[in-house]
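Pair request: fold both.
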Amino acid sequence: MTIVEKGKTAGTGYQVGVRRTWPVSLERAWDWLMSPSGMSVWLEADVPERAAAGAAFATRDGVQCEVRVVNERENVRLRWRKPEWERASTVQVRTIAASPDKTTISFHQEQLADATTREAMKRHWESVSIRVGQALAMDDRTARP
């Protein structure tokens, strides 16, 4: 009998995903996530403008990022590498309409080196997801007339 480790894939190492549903339309969630203020929260990066495919930058913690794919109002895929990592991972952020006024925001990271890294990144994306929800709630309060 083969024991399969949690989060281990056959071909891409370890992976982790965190998703939560928030009371905001898909359009609003996407526009905020891809804005400089949104990216400041979930990527912890100061980007001067809306990120497009090919954009490269570093987070405040020195993580090297490159935007690989942007499918408008659907998903963004990044190469994501911490300074101490031997190789980059792939991060995908996806928005999924749960209803007209609710959106699931999913953070998925793959090509992680080991189970320890997977657990650390799970905690990271859980924390990010909470901050995103708090920021969306604050943004919603300030956007109302």
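--- second member of the pair ---
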Amino acid sequence: MKFVVRDTPQTPADALRQLLSEAEKLAANLPGAGASAARLLTLLDEIDAEHRRLKELGIDLRPEETRLESLHASLRQRKARFVRELRAAGGLAALRAQRTPPGEAWWWFLDEELAQERRRQLRRLGLLAGIAAGVLIIAVVVMYVIARPDPVVLATSRNLHRAQEYILQGKLSEAVPLMEENTRLDPQNPEWYIRLGVLAEVTGNAAKAQEAFSRGRELSTDEAAFLTERAQYYNEVNAFAPALADASEAVRLRPDSAMAYLMLGRALAGLRRYPEAIAAYEQAVALAENTDQTLYVMAKVELGYLLQSLPALTPAAP
């Protein structure tokens, strides 16, 4: 007796699973994908349509929805790479003009989302730079006039400044050796290990990231402090999904931490979950008001920028 192996879907969700598998494979191999990355756009359209169809039939899609959420989070985290790869196919704007996708198909608008994030980041950095400049003047006076400068502090500060410039330019790999040098210069400071771990992770060196995180966790005062600090550095490189995970856990461990709520707000804003971001920022403001004036001002300012940007980000009602 001969047995026939069927390639056609055998259960209602099989087609959705096959589409998810193809999309996951493409998303995992974005670097160097070039024009073939455009297939991911239409795959996501097909996945969305099939998901809606099956949901209307009342089919339990919890396992598939977990995979879809993970795929979406991965694509948002790597949207800059995705947008760059699509240039080989004419660019996302040109591809969008050919299809006129609906607004809820956010993957077709990642270039606009990326531009909005960069504008918000530049505005925030400009404001924070002004605040930091005043603090820096005081610090310089203290360092050079009142106290003798510590050569280790000077060296690590220079490295950090250069690393942050590379991050703003999108040259994350260039920042890695600077943080490696800081771990050698100041080996008892958890900041350098955590920063190194984040940079290593987002540039694809998982082993180095794990080693750095392990050391940073050992040197941190507690788990909540470690997670809050790591969320801060994830946010700095626009890795909002892991920042959200760390900040959420930090808030659970230390619900009275204004800093943890501030990092939670930044991550949620980066993921465009604006109502939740506003709530997190408001909690940071409330917690910091009577305990940390610097943090209070920072949270208040960032909340204000977010609220001001919402009308431009929310489509007008028809």
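Observation on the second member. Residues 1-6, 312-318 have pLDDT under 50 and may be disordered.
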